[in-house]
Specification:
The chain has 317 residues and is α/β, with parallel strands linked by helices. It has helices spanning 11-23, 26-33, 37-51, 67-90, 104-121, 202-209, 227-235, 249-253, 281-308, and strands spanning 56-58, 63-65, 96-103, 125-132, 146-151, 163-168, 171-176, 194-196, 221-223, 240-244, 257-258, 271-276. The protein is built from nine helices and twelve strands. The strands form three sheets. The chain has a five-stranded mixed β-sheet with strand order 4-3-5-12-6, with helices on one face. A five-stranded mixed β-sheet has the order 9-8-10-7-11. The longest helix has 28 residues, at 281-308.
Length: 317
Amino acid sequence: MTPYSNLPYSHNSLKVFEAVARLLSFTKAADELNVTQSAVSRQIKQLEQECQVTLLVRKHRTVELTEQGRDLFDVLRQNYHNLNSLIGQWKAPTKNRIVIKSALSYATRVLLPKVAQLNEKYPDHEIVIIPSIEEDPILEQEDCDLLIINSRKHERYINKPGVSFLRAEYMAPVYSELMSASRIQIQDVLNLPHLHATLDHQDWKLWLANTALRGPKRGRDTVFFSLDLALSACLSGQGVTVTDLLLVLPELERQFLKCPEGIALQHSDWHYYCYQRSHTPMINDIKQWLENQTHADRTQLQRLCDKFGWSVADVVF
C-alpha cells in the first residue's frame, strides 16, 4: 500500500485550489499562478473528481466554498504557511546595503580600520566599501550612497549639488624606525632614498619647493605607483616618502613611522570631497559620522604636532 493513498495524484491541483479559495476568484487565481482561467477550472474539476466531493460553488460573479472546501482550505493554508516559514529559514537573510565608494588610500587607511563602528551602528545593514582608482569620476554615473573623492580639480566640486568639502591634506616626509635608530634631521632628507607614489614625483616636488632645504638631492628614487605600496616600502625601511599624515595616524602614534626633526607640515594641491547621492536620514547620519571622524583625526594630528614639535604655521586645521 502506498503512503498518503487518499491524496490526489496531482499536488498542483491543491496549490490551484488554495489560490482560488484564498482569492475567491478563478480570474485572480489564474493571474497569480500565471496560467489561463480554463486551466484553473480544469485543475479544480480534476481535484473534485479525485476527492469525490464538491469543493466550490460557482455562481455568476462569485465563488463560494462548500463545507468540505473550507475544511480543505484551512488545512492547506496552515501547512503552506508552515512550509513557507521552514524554507524561508534555510535561505540566507537578505540585508539592505550601505555602499561607500572611496579613493583607494582613504578606503584602505581610514575607512577600513573604522568599518567595525559602522557595522555596530547598523547591524541590519551590509556595509560595502568600494575602492576607486578613478581620480575624477562622473558624479551622475556613480551608484553608491556616499562617494569620497580625492582631487586637485577643485572647480569640479565647489558648489556642486550633493558635494561638500571634507578636508585638506597635511603633507610631510615620513620614515620607519627600521631605517634609523637615531632621529633623522630635516637636512638628511636630501640624502635618503625617496619613495614615490606617482611617476611625476608630484608630492616630493611640491614639498621640496615649499621647504627651506638647500643643496642637491642625492637620494635615489623608487616609484611604486601607489601610495599604499610606497607606505609599505617605507614601513619596511626602504626610504622616505611624503604622505598625508592623516592617513598614517596609527603608525605615527606608535612611532612605527616618524617625521624628521624640525619638520613643517604643508597642504598639497589635493582635497577630499564627499558626494552624497541619496539624502535619507541614515545616509545623512553616516555623512555626519565621517565628518566627526575627520574632526577627531585632525585633533589627534594637532596633538602629535605639539608632542613632537612639528610646525603647523603653514597649514589650517
